[in-house]
Amino acid sequence: MKSHMDKPVCFIDTGSDGKLRVQQSALQMLQQIQQPVVVVAVVGLYRTGKSYLMNRLAGKQSGFALGSTIESKTKGIWMWCVSHPTKAGTTLVLLDTEGLGDVDRGDPKHDTNIFSLAVLLSSTLVYNSRGTIDNKAVMDLQYVTELSDCIKVKSSDEDADDSSEFVKFFPSFIWAVRDFTLELKIDGKDVTEDEYLEFALKLKHGTTRSVIEYNFPRECIQKFFPSRKCFTFPFPTALENMSSLESLNSADISSEFLKVTDHFCQFVFHDSCVKRLKDGHTVTGRVLGHLAKTYVDTISSGAVPCLENAVIAMATIENEAAVKEGLQVYQSGMEKLKDSFPLELKNVSSEHQHLSSTATQAFMKRSFRDTDGKYLKSLQENIIKLFDEYLCQNEQASKKRCEEILSSLSAPMMKKLKQGFYTKPGGYDLFCKDLEDIEKKYNSQANKEVKAEEVLEEFLKQKSVDSEAILQADKKLSEKEKKIKKEKEKAAILEQEIKARDEKQRQLEEKMEAEKQSNEERMRQMKEKMDEEMRLQREEAERVMDRKLREQADLLERSFKEKADRMSQEIEEFKRQNAESNRAGEFAAILENSKRRHEEEMAMMMQQRREQMMGMQQRAIQQIILRPSDECCIS
């Protein structure tokens, strides 16, 4: 079994102020685990061999501290993360808890907190005891009767009893009975270990105080852990503390003992599922660390841990991190593309679409409970902002290249200007011919540059100053010819200005089309994510309903009609709440709102461009209207 950690580490302990705290080093280790986690926690009275079982589950002979004295060895909660032996791509997190009822500590509240944390953090809870499951053993599990006071499901209605909701969150339960020497028989008939457990948890009829005290812990176990199993160890726990099993006189005993413990490990591996939050969201090592920190901080503050609040806090942390992760994916890819700037707009847009889709995938993988689409919208807005910045950088690089091309092509002309080559009769026509040659060569070399038309427009405007001086100095031309040539030049500049604006419009439409496709891809991924969340929600609802129906049937079979009637009420209430929490309508609204926002943004951009184009056309018309009539036909 490959280990993520060489040895166990302290996960939760008690600080100098007497309050529980999470070890930062353990949190850092969990942060590195991106895989789903199966969390197995073992609880039980101190000095009952819990640590030995955890070592065996880790596939090791040693690791968690063992002891052979009456002193409890484990303090707080210790953690060991290993690769799951039967579930590929999954991490097995083993939590060894401090023994309950430690006489040295003598703090029942501390024991309750440790037990509550084990329940909150695990997907499978192993309760370890010795002997048989008699009334004393059940009473020793008194901590389960306090769960309703120590854990809340919902933050609202603080005085309301929401213990029936615990089934959605609580782990599966395995009662491991050590040093078991009884035959598995009831009324002379062979029974399974699970049937033995159910027999031990059987309720008594009656309303006397003794019957109520007898039934209460059993009712709590049945309510909080509807998925429960039993495993019995027929061999003495004392064998576990021997330094070497090979030192036993009987090799058969040691071999059989190992077989039993190995069978227990396989039993746990098979029965343990991946840890999930409400609505079926998978818990990773990172999420487990956040949950532990939230629960421990709440307990240390004197408040009662609330499952709903923990999930909400977790959703905020994970969704904010998901936005950052998505942006990092997008930005790192665009930074690589940036090294190739300047590029054609279609190449930048194509890579933007690809990276936007990849970033959304990264976001979807990590996010959960983004019910109003707030965080996806934040990702989308930040990606659009970054896209605009990269487009601007590409334009700057394109502008620089275009200016360099023009500078190189116009160098001979600039030399002639300095030498006064054009200040002679016919010089204006020579200047215009050189300018025309430069323009042709430039269009050939810079035709795919995003700033080609705009830079040429600026270049022609700049050269119009030199052109005006050369035109006025040309003695070969009459005043009327000078006016006509001047208007021709203005028309050419205006034509280039229109070409530049048309190119901007074309680029805007290309950008809008790219963003439209990116938005459609985001909506597709969002729908897939929502469909998956709804599927998990339905599966969870079906699982809870199945457990409640089985519990109701069991109560009816045992003739506890009053309790069965209460269970019927719980079932009806669960159906009502599940119908109210159906998110299909919410998801449809999110998709529609996102689509509407995108259409509004595109419409606004198009309106701005239309206003710019209309303004430019009006300026062109005004220039024509203001010209003398004999020059209008030339234009």
TrEMBL record:
The keyword Transferase does not apply. InterPro entries: G_GB1_RHD3_dom (IPR030386), GBP_C (IPR037684), Guanylate-bd/ATL_C (IPR003191), Guanylate-bd_C_sf (IPR036543), Guanylate-bd_N (IPR015894), P-loop_NTPase (IPR027417). CDD domains: GBP (cd01851), GBP_C (cd16269). Residues 504-523 are annotated as: Disordered. Keywords: GTP-binding, Hydrolase, Immunity, Innate immunity, Nucleotide-binding. One of its GO terms (molecular function) is GTPase activity. Residues 34-273 form the GB1/RHD3-type G domain. It comes from the Eukaryota. It holds the Pfam family GBP_C. GO terms for biological process: innate immune response. Belongs to the TRAFAC class dynamin-like GTPase superfamily. GB1/RHD3 GTPase family. This is Guanylate-binding protein 1-like. It comes from Sinocyclocheilus grahami (Dianchi golden-line fish).
